[in-house]
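sry for the spam today, last one i promise. C-alpha cells for design, 245 residues
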C-alpha cells in the first residue's frame, strides 16, 4: 500500500451524503469534514423553511425565533467575494471564509441568547458548532456540540447531524476512541444512519491502528447495509486496508 492505515483521512474516502439525497437530491459528500457538516446544517434549516416557518415553530416566540434563524441561514448561504461572482447572486458577500464563519457565529449567537429554549436555538447551536470547527476553534466546537446534545428532545431530527459533528470534532482533537464511541451512539439512536456510522467508525479504527477491527466492520458492511449508498466506499476502504497478514 502506498499509504499506511494511519494516514487514512475522510478527504481521501469521500462518500455521498445520504441526508442531502433524501432532503433534495443535493450534491454528494464534500471533501472536508467541516464543509460537509455545514451542508447538512443548511439542508436541515432549508427543509424547515420550505415546510413553512409557522408549522415548524409554533407560537409567537417560536415565530420570532424562526425569523432570527433565517439570518443564520442567510449567512451560511453567502458567498466569498470573487472577481466573477455568481450571476444573479444577491449576497451577502464576504471577503474570505473566516469572515463568513464569524458572521454565522454572530447570527447564531443572537438566536441562542434571544430564544434559548426554542427549536431554532438548537439549530443555531449546530450551525455555531460547525462554524467554530471551520475556524479551527476545536475546543469551542466541542463545547457547542456537547451543549446541543444536552438540548436534545426525544425524536429530535437534529440528533444524527449533531452526533456526527461531535464525532468529527473529537477526531480533530485527537480523541479517536471518543469519536468511535459517539459513532456507536449515532448508530444506536439514529439507525437510519447506521451505515454512515459504521463506515466512519471503520475509518477511525484504521486511523487508530486497529486495522483488524476496521476490516471486520467493512467485511460485514454489505450484509448489514444492503441498500446503503456507501457500499462502494466501504469496499474501497477495505481494499485499501488489504488482507490480514
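last one done:
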Amino acid at each position: 500500500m502506498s499509504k499506511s492505515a494511519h494516514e487514512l483521512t475522510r478527504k481521501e474516502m469521500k462518500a455521498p451524503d445520504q441526508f442531502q439525497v433524501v432532503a433534495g437530491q443535493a450534491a454528494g459528500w464534500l471533501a472536508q469534514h467541516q464543509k460537509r457538516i455545514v451542508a447538512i446544517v443548511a439542508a436541515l434549516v432549508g427543509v424547515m423553511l420550505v415546510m413553512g416557518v409557522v408549522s415548524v415553530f409554533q407560537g409567537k416566540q417560536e415565530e420570532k425565533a424562526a425569523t432570527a434563524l433565517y439570518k443564520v441561514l442567510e449567512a451560511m448561504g453567502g458567498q466569498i467575494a470573487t472577481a466573477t461572482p455568481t450571476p444573479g447572486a444577491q449576497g451577502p458577500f464576504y471577503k474570505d471564509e473566516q469572515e463568513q464563519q464569524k458572521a454565522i457565529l454572530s447570527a447564531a449567537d443572537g438566536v441562542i441568547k434571544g430564544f434559548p429554549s426554542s427549536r431554532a436555538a438548537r439549530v443555531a447551536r449546530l450551525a455555531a458548532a460547525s462554524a467554530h470547527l471551520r475556524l479551527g476553534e476545536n475546543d469551542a466546537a466541542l463545547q457547542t456540540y456537547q451543549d446541543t446534545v444536552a438540548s436534545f428532545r426525544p425524536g429530535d431530527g437534529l440528533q444524527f447531524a449533531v452526533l456526527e459533528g461531535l464525532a468529527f470534532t473529537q477526531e480533530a482533537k485527537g480523541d479517536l476512541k471518543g469519536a468511535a464511541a459517539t459513532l456507536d451512539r449515532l448508530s444506536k439512536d439514529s439507525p437510519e444512519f447506521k451505515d454512515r456510522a459504521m463506515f466512519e467508525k471503520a475509518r477511525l479504527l484504521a486511523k487508530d491502528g486497529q486495522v483488524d477491527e476496521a476490516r471486520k466492520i467493512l467485511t460485514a458492511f454489505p450484509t448489514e447495509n444492503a441498500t446503503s449508498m456507501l457500499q462502494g466506499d466501504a469496499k474501497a476502504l477495505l481494499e485499501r486496508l488489504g488482507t490480514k497478514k
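Strands lie at 79-80, 93-94. ok im logging off now
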